[in-house]
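G., the chain you wanted modeled:
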Amino acid sequence: MSAATALHTEAARQQRLLAALAGGDDAGFEALGLAAYRANAAAVAERALAAACPTVQQLLGDESFSAVARRLWQVAPPARGDLAQWGGALPGLLAEDEALGDEPYLADVARVDLAVHRAEMAADATLDPARLAMLGEADPAGLRLHLAPGAWLLASAHPVAAIWQAHRSDAPDRFAPVRAALASGHGEHALVWRQGWRGQVAALSEPDAAFMAAVLTGDSLAQALDAAPLLDFEHWLLQALRLQWLSDVEML
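Predicted structure as tokens:
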């Protein structure tokens, strides 16, 4: 057997194994061994998803989360070897699960969890003071801002930032703002970014959200300012520098 043929045969065998692990045809694999593979794969899936979506795990509880992780492994198995990249289909699965209809915020919380997970794996970026100085020298129409790698914005009908933050607080009344927001039907614009080594989530005001959405879209500074006429840009910039939102100022 040639090396090329051997590689093709092994690749085909691995594909059949992955299909069998996902619940497909068991033919060609010894039953007890496959059962062990499946049990191990399910446990690995649960651990990987828990690492990426800890807030969802706390909201669902361990037993329900385990069932969700196993179902996700079956319907959307990993497409690559790095399980840290797996789980992107979770929000859709949660949104479609009728049994979770009394917790409609779960899908967006999963989106936030996954965005935090991605932000924590994002590349480092250091803002060059010389490029920052262009803000005081150049026409805003000729400048474009860049947020830190991994920065992401979600407009949600639910208080997802408050939910995320409450699950990381030790305050005795930490869930009171969440209950109040849910009762009033209050949604949030949630910004996700990495500060230092840790992912962060914050609720933004309407002007801040409109401005940062335009920045993330790639608009010029002038266009982003036009999108948020009520924005206090000086205040935004000081906050962006303090919280490490801004990574670069580009001349167009």
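The first strand starts at residue 143 and ends at 147.

Shout if anything looks off.
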